């Protein structure tokens, strides 16, 4: 029922795009979140190397193995404090938006970054100024996306300026763009204090902005020393069977991208997900 996928860079030692396609085909995976600069950085560094020809060739190489790009990944620090570096990052994202259709990707995704050059936890991300900076940037990106007939996917996270379900709703209201979508990773909104209420947190997200949720990121986690630590699928305390059953009712057919599950562990995860989703 679901479109189950993985991040391309979670499959290691793939020398070419065709290699990646073959590996995905062997795993019976037909959807990939494709981060060009992480899987094959030499082909798109600098981003001026990217062309419609390269995008279409990538799309075809994967399609030959029955794989589609469900998410085009271009994770940037959209509120970098150095305005020159911020502008370069935004222009890179806009370049990906301009070629998304050539990749056959419906959506280009990013998180919302950090007020510091290096992305990490800081309470300074929770200020009104940081939020308003994100609003202005996302307005710009959705305007560019509209010119190219594609979507912008924003992924909230507790370490970022869009750090809660309520702040996500505020962003959606402030930007007011039909082509703004949400990439929901529940683990990004869970803390060591709240993880036992994960179902309530997920339900709240769907109550507030379920109509905007277009892609799910799914990663398991453990709680250690008061921290949420991502782990491979099935090795943590994420209530995955409940979540999949919930999604079957709320978003049948949605793209689910596995995270933090790599190489040989992917096959087991995909098999388990298919079994649970078919129940």
UniProtKB/TrEMBL annotation:
<dbReference type="InterPro" id="IPR036237">
    <property type="entry name" value="Xyl_isomerase-like_sf"/>
</dbReference>
<dbReference type="GO" id="GO:0016853">
    <property type="term" value="F:isomerase activity"/>
</dbReference>
<protein>
    <submittedName>
        <fullName>Sugar phosphate isomerase/epimerase</fullName>
    </submittedName>
</protein>
<dbReference type="InterPro" id="IPR013022">
    <property type="entry name" value="Xyl_isomerase-like_TIM-brl"/>
</dbReference>
<keyword id="KW-0413">Isomerase</keyword>
<dbReference type="InterPro" id="IPR050312">
    <property type="entry name" value="IolE/XylAMocC-like"/>
</dbReference>
<dbReference type="Pfam" id="PF01261">
    <property type="entry name" value="AP_endonuc_2"/>
</dbReference>
<feature type="domain" description="Xylose isomerase-like TIM barrel">
    <location>
        <begin position="28"/>
        <end position="274"/>
    </location>
</feature>
């Amino acid at each position: 029922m679901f479109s189950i996928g993985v991040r391309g860079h979670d499959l290691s030692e793939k020398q070419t795009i065709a290699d990646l396609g073959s590996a995905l085909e062997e795993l019976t995976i037909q959807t990939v979140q494709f981060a060009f600069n992480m899987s094959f950085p030499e082909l798109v560094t600098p981003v001026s190397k990217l062309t419609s020809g390269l995008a279409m060739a990538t799309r075809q190489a994967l399609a030959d193995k029955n794989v589609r790009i469900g998410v085009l990944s271009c994770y940037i620090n959209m509120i970098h404090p150095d305005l020159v570096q911020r502008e370069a990052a935004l222009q890179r994202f806009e370049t990906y938006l301009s070629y998304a259709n050539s990749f056959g990707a419906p959506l280009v995704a990013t998180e919302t970054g950090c007020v510091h050059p290096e992305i990490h936890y800081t309470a300074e991300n929770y200020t009104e100024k940081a939020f308003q900076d994100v609003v202005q940037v996302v307005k710009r990106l959705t305007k560019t996306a509209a010119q190219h007939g594609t979507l912008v996917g924003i992924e909230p996270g507790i370490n970022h300026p869009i750090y809660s379900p309520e702040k996500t709703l505020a962003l959606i209201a402030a930007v007011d763009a039909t082509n703004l979508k949400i990439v929901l990773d529940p683990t990004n909104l869970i803390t060591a204090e709240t993880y036992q209420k994960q179902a309530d947190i997920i339900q709240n997200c769907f109550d507030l902005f379920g109509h905007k949720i277009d892609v799910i990121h799914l990663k398991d986690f453990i709680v250690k020393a008061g921290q949420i630590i991502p782990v491979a699928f099935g090795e943590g305390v994420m209530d995955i069977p409940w979540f999949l059953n919930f999604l079957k009712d709320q978003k049948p057919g949605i793209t689910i991208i596995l995270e933090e599950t790599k190489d040989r562990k992917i096959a087991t995860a995909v098999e388990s997900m298919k079994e649970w989703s078919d129940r």
